[in-house]
Every structure is written in structure tokens, then in C-alpha cells.
Amino acid sequence: MIAIAILLVHLLSTFQIINAAASEMHTNAVRDDGKALLAWKASLDNNSRLKLSSWSALENSCTNWTGIQCNKAGRIKVINITSSGIKEEIGKLTSLQHLDLSENHLTNQIPRSIGNLDNLTGLHFFKNSLSGPIPEEIVNLISLEDLDLSTNNLTNQIPQSIGNLSNLNILFLYENSLSGPIPEEIGKLTFLEHLDLSENHLTNQIPQSIGNLDNLTSFHFFKNFLSGPIPEEIVNIISLEDLDLSTNNLTNQIPQSIGNLSNLNILFLYKNSLFGPIPEEIGKLTSLEHLDLSENHLTNQIPRSIGNLDNLTSLHFFKNSLSGPIPEEIVNLISLEDLDLSTNNLTNQIPFSIGNLRKLSFLHLYQNNLTRHIPSSIGNLTNLRELILQQNKLYGAIPRELEKLKLMADLRLFMNQLSGPLPMEFNNITHLQKVRNFSKLSCWSFTTKYLQG
């Protein structure tokens, strides 16, 4: 019995020693977190130190320091000090789960020590003046779910090893100076929901592996130098709601299979070099609210299936080589507020039923080959602010019904073959008077070459 008692006393003593050592290690770790941040604060300019006046050795870092949150063990897990003018060095805070230094004046490169923060789930450095490459070490952050390095001066290529960040939901690298191709490895980020690489200097083709990202809801690559076709694989991303590939050098035809993206609300492909017809299948995108295919080399007629898109509020096809009539089915788009079909080769008359589009504020049909009369039904478009019909082959009288357009600020009918007197009722369009001095109309507004009386 005595031997057992001695053994128990020995075990209890050993446990207390181990527990005390662990407690001391934990206390030291907590103290080290605070020391690291105070050392960092000390390296800053006076203005930045003033903004972090609550960071003091006399105060509890978890409860009294601005922008700091701790876990239950008292280790710093979140730093959120946006708009504080902070500069750098953070790699010792290995317990961090969320780091937000966005909207400051951070300069120089992202420190390689960032790769030590392997507990991070959120990393935000957006809206700073960071430069240099994205450090390869960032790919050690395998717990990362949200990475936003946008609106900086980052250069070089996107590292291929970014494919290791397999838990990412959000990847924002837009508004930098990143160059080279989009790495094929980006297709490994199968949990991604939001991907924005826009406004960089990215080149080459969009990788086919992009089709693996079947959880994406928004996908922005606009304002780069991407070339080649829109990959067919893109149509595997059936969750996609917002697709913007505008302002690149994309070529070939719009894939017919784009009709599979039935959840799209926004489709922007403008300012590319796409050619061929607009696919009939575009009419399957019945959730679309904004469709812009302008400034390409699209040909043939506007497909009748466009009339299925009855949720559209804006439709832009301007600066293409579209031909044939404006399809009657376009008048089914009763939610439409902005219609621009200008600078094409459209023919025939403006459909009388265009007067059904009662929500229209902007109607631009200029620089086409539209003929016959301006339909009097345009007078039903009482929300219209801009009616731009110049440079067509319209003839006949200007309809008196246009006087109903009390909100109209910009009316252009010049370079047509209109005749007859100007309706006196136009003096009632008071907004137009303010913008165009309509009470003193002169030949530049309508071109007197064809006006009489």
C-alpha cells in the first residue's frame, strides 16, 4: 500500500510539472503574439502608430486592441485593421485565422513569411500598393477559403502552384499587372464560387480546365489580352450567374452550347473579335437580365429566340455586322430599359410593336439601313430619355406623338430623309429644351436637307 501511495504521489507530481510547463508554453505563445504586433507597430510612422494607440503592453490584446480578435485559448486569430496605414511583417502570428490589411498604403512585396500562417482561412490585402510577384509560399496556406489581393501593383505570372489551395471559395486578383497565361492548374480549385482575374495583362487562351469549376457563380476575366475561342468546357459551369469575358481578343464563334448556362443573369462578351451568327440557343438563357455582345464581328440576323429573354433589362448588340430586320419578337422583352442595336446593317422598318416596351429609357438604332416611317407608337414610351435614330433611311413626317415623351433629353434624327413641318407640340418636351435648346432648333438637329415648311 505504501508503495502504491508513493507511486500516486510521483505521478501527480509529474502531471503537475507537465501541466505547469504546458501552461507556461501557452502563456509564452500568447505573450509572443502581443510582442510581435507591438514590434510591428514600433516600426511604423507616427500617423500609423497613433491610429493603433490602443495597442499597448498595459492593455489586454484580446479585449482592448483595435481590430484584434482572439480564440478561446487567448491566441490572436483575426487582425482587421483596414484603413490604418499599416506597413508589413506578420509571419510570426501562426495562430491567425483571418488577416485583413486591405485599404491601407502597404508597399513593397508581400513577405514570404506569409506562408507560415497555415491556419489562415481568409487573407485580404486589397486596395494597397503592393508590388512584385505573388509569393510561391502563399500556396502553403491550404486552409485558405478567401483570398483577395485585388487592386494592387502585383506583377509576374499567377503561380501554377495556386492549384494547391483546394479549399478556396473566393479568388480575387483583379486590378493588378499580372501577366502570362492563366495556369491550367486553376481548374483544381473545384470549390471556387467567385473568380475574378479582370483588369490585368493576362495572355493566351482561357484554359480548358476552367470547365472543372462547376461551383462557380461569378467568373470575370474582362480587360485582359486573352485570345482564342471561348472554351466549350465553360458550359459545364451550370451554376454560373455572372460571366464577363469582355474587352479581350477572343475569336471564333459564340459556342451554341452556351444555352446550357441556364442560370446566367449577366453575359458580357463585348469588345472582342467574335464572329459568325448569334446562336439561336441564346434564347434558352431565360434568367438573363443584362446581355452585351457589342463591338464584335457578329453577322446574320438577330435570332428570333431573343424574344424568350423576358427578364432582360439591357440589350446591347451595337457595332457588329448584323443584318436583316429587327425581329418582331423583341417586343416580348417588356422589362427592357436599354436597347442599343446601333451601327449594324439592319434593314426594313422599325416594328410598330416597339411601342409595347413601356420601360425603355434608351433606344439607340442609329447607323443602320432602317427605312419607312418613324412609328407613332414610339410615343407610348413615356420613360424614354434618349431616342437616337440618326443615319438611317427613314422618311415621312416626324410623328406628333413624340410630344408625349416628356422625359426625353436627347433626340437625334439627322441624316435621314424626313420631311414636313416640325410638330409644334415638341415645345412641350421641357427636358429636351434644357439639353438641346429645342425652342431654338437649328439645322444640325434634323438636317434641313429634307425638312420642308
UniProtKB/TrEMBL annotation:
Membrane topology according to the record: Single-pass membrane protein; Single-pass type I membrane protein
Keywords, in A-Z order: Glycoprotein, Leucine-rich repeat, Membrane, Receptor, Repeat, Signal, Transmembrane, Transmembrane helix
Positions of the Disease resistance R13L4/SHOC-2-like LRR domain: 162-269, 325-444
Position of the signal peptide: 1-20
One GO term (biological process): anatomical structure morphogenesis
Broad class of where this protein is predominantly found: membrane
Domain annotation Leucine-rich repeat-containing N-terminal plant-type: ranges: 32-71
Highest taxon in the source lineage: Eukaryota
Short name of one Pfam family: LRRNT_2
Localization: Cell membrane; Membrane
One GO term describing the cellular component: plasma membrane
UniProt name for this protein: Leucine-rich repeat-containing N-terminal plant-type domain-containing protein
Organism: Cinchona calisaya
Organism ancestry: Eukaryota, Viridiplantae, Streptophyta, Embryophyta, Tracheophyta
